Fold:
Amino acid sequence: MISELVAVSIEQFQADCLQLCTQHYPTVHNRGMRDRHLGRLMCRRILATLEKEGMTATLEQVECDDVIMPPVFRIRTHETTLWVIAHRLQSANLARRSTLFQAIGLTLEQLTPTGDHHLLLLSDHWFDRSKASKQLPSWWLGQMPDNMQGYLQDGIKLLPSELSLTGQLQTQFELTQGITQLHHPLKRLHTNTTLHRYAVMTAYYPNIHAPTCRQ
Structure:
């Protein structure tokens, strides 16, 4: 049940993102969204979806003394805990990706032995000319996107990545059966065509548990 509602929320979140970016144009178009704003926007959408289904849920941001760490949110229902990690990839380099893995590790350490835990990773990125940026879709999805022509029309020549997010999460944290998606919610103001230079990425892992060993 919760997996279906998360999927619905992710789909509807794209409209929320478009509305926010339109209201704050050109600020968001120039800089993207802050981690905290991105995460809260998604969490509010999930809460609205749960409420529509008659499910009561609470939202809290997990406290962390490390200001470098991306924000982690916890949505609790009577039966399920959904952890949402929002990490803006202002740069797609290894250092920024490493920070995401650190946040995942700290989150998994908080899991109780019992209970139904789920994990949703959320990120956004403005493409640049760096190799890491061009490899980001392949790394996140585990394969090249289907709509390559759309990227080329926007002047983005994507590159394949030898590593993948799902592969690294399985190796480091024993996370499997994740659903990774890449979205382009923004539209050009005058033509209403998709703006491929901005991407929102999600990775959803149901029924997660703390890893039995650390790499």
User: Anything to note?
Assistant: The beta strands are 58-61, 72-76, 80-86, 116-126, 179-183, 198-205.
